[in-house]
Amino acid sequence: MSAGLVSSSWLALRKRWLLYHLGLPEFAFVLDPPPPGEWVSLDCETTGLKVGTDEIVSIGAVRIVGDRILASEKFEVLVRPEGKVSAQSIRIHRLREKDVADGLPVDEAVKRLLYFIGSRPLVGYYLEFDVAMLDRVVFPMLGWGLPQAQIEVSALYHSYKMRQLNALQRQSPDIDLRLVTLMNDLGLPLREAHDPVNDAVMAGLAFIKLRHLLSA
Predict the structure, then answer these.
(1) Which of 70, 88, 134, 187 has the most CB atoms within 10 Å of its CB?
(2) pTM over 0.85
(3) Which fold has domain 29-215?
């Protein structure tokens, strides 16, 4: 049996399993085939970096179609946390308790995000953390975590730099994966950081550039 048939059979089996365990049938569309050439770049701001205890305070996302970021169709919501917003986190994202007091409950915010994403693959900078924070909400809601494919921009950039070094026959040093370094090296515009839409746009721009550089 060919690898393609095995892969198709596995994907079909996985989809059946996920549908069987789906808590809210209205979200079955997230398992549909993704629109070709489309992605969603997303970012979350949180009260801290502890996935088990910290909370989301804002979510930003933009759709990518081909080589374009559809910034006019951005997704942006404030989320009302159940606990306190620490002074340390306020210094990072500048969202005070009174700023998020009228935000959406996290369940409602994530439901709206799922409708925005659909089945499109996810793009992000250190996306694993954002997905882990969202999955705390998604899992009890759907019965499983976000099923969309995930593309990590810092990993793409690392692959690109390794290719450069190999072409120059240089030994690999530690590669600086900070977002500001990545954006400057790729000649892309920086936006004010720790704003979820800005961070999503920057990750999207880097993804578009790196996708072409790595396919060249």
Answers:
(1) 134
(2) yes
(3) Nucleotidyltransferase; domain 5 (3.30.420)
